[in-house]
From TrEMBL:
This is SAM-dependent methyltransferase. Keywords: Methyltransferase, Transferase. GO terms for biological process: methylation. Residues 19-28 have a biased composition (Low complexity). Residues 1-38 are annotated as: Disordered.
């Protein structure tokens, strides 16, 4: 993406540097910004206004203070991972393994189901811009949001951000994205877009995936189809007999399957809660880091769960990168 503006933050009225940043410059320190304690050094006030985290007057209200806290909370998880990757990218003598996993662009990140791209913008402002490396791609199906994000990035001079009007699935094959993407994020990407983001990450050999799944209907639909059969087979099927429970169980099972799949494909997985994410019921944060150790036990567990829940049809649609997936179904398995 091209831009008239340099890719650096220029102070504007109401956009003074924080007290900490001013202290480092050696100049006579101006009076500290009223929000110095709430902001990160060098953070773009203009961006925060555009994202409605700060009011037009550059103030925080109670709601936006909470929003900012939530954004920082998620950012701190991702920052830690990005710092590790940036260190590896910059290492003078990277190991073969690291060289194989380092994309030529420095550090590439794809944010799927980007929406207004506030995650991408915050990551760029706080990390990519300040580190002076890498490129962020926002993938979003709503053309108007893509255009708005593109315009905002140009206005802010965030040159190493691109926004693509594609579905997650389309982006996997698109020549507008590089062959390798280091980091994949998908924050509340709708329904099975999270699964598509995982498929994207596997194809692009991502080193880190950060996923906050949204509601997912696919598994619940299959659970529903086989409900009668399951109820006659196991009392556990009571757990998804009522439609509301089918939906909840569907979501729960989906995320468990996603974690097992990632482990089977060589990722170390942690699951935690996005504390303080009050505006959404969906606050499960899945962080997957590539280690290369493909866990056979996870693959086996995944297959067993699919069989147990009557979900084996997903083996050939969702879990196509599972090692040994070519193995034909066992006698009696419903695929
Ligand atoms: C709930 S919003 C989340 C937006 C943003 N990630 C956030 O957390 O604020 C989900 C976004 O994903 C987009 N989306 C849904 N399915 C998609 C798909 N298959 N590919 C790309 N974008 C998709 C929607 O248009 C919407 O903007």
């Amino acid at each position: 993406m091209t831009s008239k503006h340099p890719d650096t933050h220029r102070p504007k009225p109401g956009d003074r540097p924080s007290a900490r940043a001013a202290g480092r410059s050696g100049a006579t320190p101006p009076s500290p910004h009223p929000l110095a304690d709430e902001l990160r050094p060098g953070q773009s006030i203009e961006l925060l206004k555009e994202l409605h985290i700060l009011t037009r007057e550059g103030k925080l209200n109670q709601d936006s203070r909470r929003k900012l806290k939530q954004v920082y909370h998620l950012y701190q998880f991702i920052e830690k991972l990005l710092l590790e990757l940036a260190q590896q990218v910059r290492a003078p003598n990277p190991t073969d393994d690291i060289r194989a996993y380092t994309s030529p662009a420095g550090l590439t990140l794809a944010d799927h189901g980007a929406g207004k791209s506030y995650l991408g913008f915050i990551l760029y402002d706080l990390f990519f811009r300040q580190q002076g490396l890498g490129h962020i791609y926002g993938i979003e199906t709503r053309a108007e949001l893509v255009e708005k994000s593109q315009a905002l990035a140009s206005r802010l001079g965030f040159e190493r951000m691109s926004f693509l009007n594609l579905t997650v699935a389309e982006s996997t094959e698109s020549s507008r994205l590089p062959e390798r993407i280091d980091v994949v994020t998908a924050l509340h990407a709708c329904d099975s877009a999270t699964d598509d983001a995982i498929a994207f990450g596997l194809q692009k050999r991502a080193r880190v995936m950060v996923l906050v799944p949204c509601c997912q209907a696919e598994v619940a639909r299959v659970l529903s189809q086989h409900k009668a059969l399951s109820l006659s087979r196991t009392p556990l099927a009571e757990l998804w007999r009522h439609p509301l429970h089918t939906r909840e169980m569907g979501s729960q099972i989906t995320n468990v399957l996603r974690c097992l799949y990632l482990e089977a494909c060589g990722y170390q997985v942690t699951v935690t809660e996005l504390v303080g994410w009050e505006h959404s019921m969906k606050n499960e944060l899945i962080i997957a880091r590539y280690t290369g150790a493909r866990k056979r036990a996870s693959a086996e567990r995944l297959r067993s769960l699919l069989a147990e829940f009557g979900l084996l049809s997903l083996l050939h649609t969702r879990f196509t990168s599972l090692p040994d997936n070519a193995v034909p179904p066992l006698l009696g398995e419903v695929v």
